[in-house]
Amino acid sequence: IVRDARSEATVDWGAINQPMSPAHYAAVKTGILAATEGRDLYVQDVFVGTHPDFRVPVRVISEFAWHALFIRNLFVRPTRRAYETHDPAYTILNVHSFSADPTTMGTRSETVVAMNLSERTVLIGATEYAGEMKKSAFAMMNFELPERGVMPMHCSANVGPDNEVAVFFGLSGTGKTTLSATHERTLIGDDEHGWSDDGVFNFEGGCYAKIEHLSSEAEPEIYGTTRAFGTILENVVVDEETRRVNLEDTRKTRNMRAAYPISHISNASLVGYAGHPTDVVFLTADAFGVLPPLAKLSLEQVEYYFLSGYTAKIPGTERGVTEPEATFSACFGAPFMPRMPAEYARLLVQKMRGHGAQGWLVNTGWSGGPFGVGERMSIQHTRALLNAAIEHRLDGVETRREAAFGLHIPISCPGVPSDVLDPRETWHDPVAYDQQAIKLATMFRRNFVQFHDDVTPSVVASGPQAGEADR
């Protein structure tokens, strides 16, 4: 991000948001424009945001036709009338054939993704990954919208027949797309939204779903999109003879993706926005087997777990990961959040308090032991718990405060065995669970030290309890 008068005091500079000088940005821009001379390029004029009052007109210029199709799938296509008056507020220029020179352009490698918030441009070079365009647009919205009192969210969202909205935060692989796509509720969007004074609206006009090991039985809606015309499939293995895709073959990567228009989901919202959320859900795939499948959160805990943004990597998901590894990504999307995390956290809590939304923590990861010992949470149990929570069937159910993290878990839920609800009871060795809980709690506390000066003591105290007395 270019460090200048507009960004100096508003961007959270550090390991993620790397500063670039205006001179280096100008050098990249000169080089990338020179690389486009004489080339055929693809231009897409789209909107980021479905709500007419908050959408941002964006022009995306790309070298690949499939990148142009990706943009048409992922963002909001203007109507003919809107297209005639489309005046881009931001421009994204994506030129794969351009390689940056780190010595003269201040980049860390030949690959560059650089944003100029004053000029409102994004330059992308030396990468084919289509997600850079999507995430650049997301980062742009995350910077611009808080100034207008809108909470930008890395979440999926759906709305029930009673018009009650639920939003689902979570990092990649935690189930945002899967759990928000259900026949019983209308999908607003699967990844990026804003919460304005009017309610929730989708940033996108499409979905970008993880599809490895996808089955028509467990996830029929998303599975169907992988067979639909116009869907882009990335990182999939195709049989050389039959030309059929094999979603079980992860030899390339576990990060297989499908990019498709939201209209490929049969019960998707046609307008892309709805009212204020009644429920805010944090999804985590806890590979340590410690967190409960469902817990009810206080507003202090909402702030704590939102700033923590916890999930866990498992072996095989990324190069070099050989055992479960905790990941903390503030606001469940730190790589796309230019501003200070506490600014987003305060805005979220303010919205929830003002509209009476309930917070929930849902573990879609492991139970009965860590990865390699326990088992992955049953998606049927997770769906039953989520449905009961957001349909308010748990409102009158008694909860108990578990000791390790101080979380309030329901003592019963229709369709879910009671012994599943308490993670400690699912372990054969309770002492081993206690040791694992202390290990994870310690990681939480160490990570949260960076936020101590930005939150109240009650928020700090709402974090995990395990091992606290031994510190």
Helix and strand arrangement:
Layout: H1 22-35, E1 42-48, E2 56-62, H2 65-74, H3 80-84, E3 90-95, H4 102-105, E4 112-116, E5 121-125, H5 131-144, E6 151-159, E7 165-169, H6 176-180, E8 186-189, E9 192-196, E10 199-202, E11 206-210, H7 220-225, E12 232-234, E13 237-238, E14 245-246, E15 257-261, E16 273-274, E17 277-284, E18 295-297, H8 299-308, E19 310-313, E20 325-328, H9 341-355, E21 358-363, E22 366-367, E23 375-376, H10 379-390, E24 399-401, E25 408-410, H11 418-421, H12 423-426, H13 430-448, H14 457-461
Parallel strand pairs: 2-3, 3-5, 7-17, 17-21
Antiparallel strand pairs: 1-2, 4-5, 6-7, 6-8, 6-9, 9-10, 10-16, 11-15, 12-15, 13-14, 18-21, 19-20, 22-23, 24-25
Structure in words:
There is one protein chain. The protein contains 14 helices and 25 strands. It has 471 residues and is an alpha+beta fold. The strands form 7 sheets. Strands 6, 7, 8, 9, 10, 16, 17, 18 and 21 form a 9-stranded mixed beta sheet that branches. A 5-stranded mixed beta sheet has the order 1-2-3-5-4, with helices on both faces. Strands 11-15-12 form a 3-stranded antiparallel beta sheet. The radius of gyration is 22 Å and the shape is globular. The protein starts with 21 loop residues before the first helix and ends in a 10-residue tail after the last helix. The model has no long low-confidence stretch (mean pLDDT 94).
